[in-house]
Amino acid sequence: MARLASLTALRERNLALLVGSATVSSLGSGMAQVALAFAVLHIGGASDLGFVLLAREIPIVVFLLAGGVWADRVSRKHLLVWGNILLGACQAVTASLFLTGSASVWAVAALQVGFGVANAFTRPANVGLIPQAVSPEHLQAANALVDLSRSIMRIAGPAIGAVIVVAANPGWALAADSASFFIASTLMLRMRINEGERRPRRRMLHELREGWGEFRARQWVWTMVASFGLFQLTLFPAMLVLGPVVAKDKLGGAGAWGAILAVQSAGAVVGGMLGLHLRPSRPLLASQLLCLPTALFLGLLGVAPGVWLLAAAGFFGMLGLTCADIFWVTTFQQRVPEHLLSRLSSFDWFGSTVFNPLGYALVGPLAGVIGIPATLFGAAAVNAVVVLVIASTSTIRGTRAEIPLAEPDPAQAS
Questions:
Q1: Fold of the CATH domain 1-192
Q2: What residues contact 392, with CB distance under 8 A and at least 6 apart?
Q3: d(CA 388, CA 391)
Q4: How far apart are CA 401 and CA 404, in angstroms?
Q5: Using CA atoms in the order 241, 64, 35, 265, what is the torsion angle rounded to 10 degrees?
Q6: Which of 384, 364, 332, 363 shows the shortest CA–CA distance to 68?
Q7: pLDDT band of 202, cuts 50, 70, 90
Q8: How much is the pTM?
């Protein structure tokens, strides 16, 4: 019955196109993740790679809130179409620089600035488009199927990218990433969306203030976003900075860390499958509690008991995070009015990731002072405490799935 429900959901034209678009672009992005790193390292060093990645991340933070305002002002479908075209164009020029041997760190960084700006506008639009595109009864299935396709491509994409880097010029993988964005744009263009009437435009600052007021007025939203921000402050910096060091010193090196990350990705795939069918009566409470296994993973990483025990913990940690994300996004889309979805989504993205740079800046020096195990134990404790404190609040425990406050018009999914 669960498989039948998924197949029924995919019969919706818009949902099939959404999943196809997400699959193609995620495959290209996974290839580029490996290719760009090795391409930059070929013309520079580790600091140059850090500079290029920073050039991409800063515009996302700077323009994310503006992206949310524009996604509530204009057609989200067309914003995503043009956003994917800009992403593809940036990668096409980057690929040509490496293929012709004329790449420089500054030129690549400048192109990544454009890439980051486009990302800032497409992220909030993506969240707002899904409830416009599919029928209400298939909303969670849509989020789960899109997440599942991305999780699978996170396994396949880097592997294909690595093969291209070894066998040929990494520019070819970047060219494939460029093509994936153009294909995704074409698929989105074929979607049939009933845009409805947009509210009259006002000054951007006014609409931004309005979005902030609506964000503050929804305690369940800002409580969850605050928890995400504190959670990510420690999770990804501790895992991605200290994890490879632990693997190198105690687990056998890069191969061990690659195996752990691969099993984590498999956990995300299983989490996406479970997210298709599970319907918790208290989705926000479930979202919080499902984050607890990541604290166990960080704690075990501090002990370094062995590759496969860590891989198993990572599997369940990523499984929980994937399910949690599906339940959160679905609840968010159901309860926030359509005309506010992208603006509030931009505050969600901003609040969830704004502390990440601070975490990356602090985790290395902190580990140098108190040691890697103590830092990982501390990160695990912070994550567990944040989850348990937020889960105990009445606004999170009291939010039930069967009381949607705002539903899309079913006619919009035709």
A1: Growth Hormone; Chain: A; (1.20.1250)
A2: none
A3: 5
A4: 7
A5: 60
A6: 332
A7: low
A8: 0.72
